[in-house]
Design a protein that fits this description.
single chain; 219 residues; alpha/beta; Rossmann fold; DNA polymerase, domain 1; 2 domains; six-stranded parallel β-sheet; globular; HAD-like_hydrolase_sf; hydrolase; HAD_2; phosphoglycolate phosphatase activity
């Protein structure tokens, strides 16, 4: 089986480093006299996860000019990278065991809306090459949604296989619904209510992913 994993909110407990980075960008806007038009709660901030920077700022502050959006994105990127280097990034409990077990029998593929530096730092920090066969990420394929990265690149590289998509946001379930493959919706991530309703299976905790894959194998 070829198992495609989203990263943030599926493997990585992203809010630990993302909320402080977002707050740094928010502070910068105050300093330049362009404050956000609403107060953002942790829940509001977590709704950005799984989106590209462009999608995030188009949703969060659509009236900002492109130069300011770029500056804010760099502030977030650099702050998160700084916290990764400080060892503050954390995978969800049980994820390493899940990846280790699945990688013994299946091909694992990384698919994320992240930037290159972010992917590379996590790849090194958590030794992701021990588990993943290939990496696909948003900055490598600009303006290409995840479901098209799957159809245009992953399927081209690996051919017709038994694929399953694992993720916590609508982008991930969309990969499955638009390409007629199964999916596992990770309810412990950052999805809003009903966002994962179209998933084939549901994981309440990371180790449920392993149980679901095992049940599919035994059918």
């Amino acid at each position: 089986m070829y198992i495609i994993f989203d990263y943030d909110g599926t493997l990585h407990d992203t809010m630990i480093i993302y909320e402080p980075a977002f707050r740094a960008a928010e502070k910068h806007l105050l300093e330049i006299g362009k404050p956000l038009k609403k107060e953002f709660t942790a829940k509001d901030i977590s709704d950005n996860l799984g989106r590209t920077f462009k999608e995030m700022w188009d949703k969060t502050a659509p009236d900002l000019d492109s130069e300011t959006k770029y500056t804010l994105s760099k502030i977030i990127e650099l702050k998160m990278n700084e916290m990764i280097l400080q060892g503050q990034a954390k995978l969800y409990d049980g994820i390493k065991e899940v990846l280790e077990e699945l990688s013994k029998k299946h091909t694992l593929i990384f698919l994320s809306n992240c930037r290159t530096s972010y992917k590379d730092m996590h790849r090194e920090l958590f030794h992701l090459d021990d588990y993943f066969k290939a990496y696909y990420w948003a900055q490598k394929y600009p303006d290409t949604p995840k479901y098209e990265i799957f159809s245009q690149y992953i399927k081209k590289d690996f051919g017709e296989q038994s694929y399953i998509m694992v993720g916590d946001r609508f982008h991930d379930i969309e990969v499955a619904t638009k390409n007629a493959i199964h999916s596992i919706g990770c309810l412990y991530g950052f999805a809003r209510e009903h966002e994962l309703d179209n998933a084939t299976y549901f994981a309440n905790k990371p180790k449920d992913i392993l149980k679901i894959i095992e049940s599919i194998e035994n059918k």
